[in-house]
Amino acid sequence: MGKAMFYHLTRRPMEDTLVMLLGKARQAGWRVHVRGRSEERMAWLDEKLWQGSEDGFLPHGLAGGPHDALQPILLSTGTQGANAATCLMSIDGAEVSASETEALERVCVLFDGNDAEALERARNQWRALKEAGALAEYWSEESGAWQKKAQTQD
What we know:
The protein has one domain (11-151): Rossmann fold (3-Layer(aba) Sandwich). 31% of the residues lie in helices and 25% in strands. The chain has 4 helices and 8 strands; from the N terminus they run βαβαβββαβαββ. Helix 3 (98-103) links the parallel strand 5 and strand 6 (106-112). The protein is globular and about 40 Å long.
């Protein structure tokens, strides 16, 4: 059984935290599905990842290409990653489910704590996962460093 990790962003932009988490996921040997809610936003993120540093390059692709199944990191708005992902990263309030939390090594939910709508959506996701009995942790960067502030169960 995996777990969901909620990342409450207050200091860094989403893309910076996502790059850090994607690097850690790749170091763990995981294939990643990054799920968003808008095709335009995913295209923007694709462009941002291509502009990253050479030494920290994250091999990835935007869903809909001929090599989706081969992508170590696949960016999409769909609920199913075509790359046999073991890790799901949700951005911009993209939905996650308790069954995904159970089936995958990790589910990461990144949300902007300065956006009231994003905050409420994350709270609803937390409640739904907690009610379903999923293991979840809440992490905050409010102090300047990431700190675990809560978890649903041991």
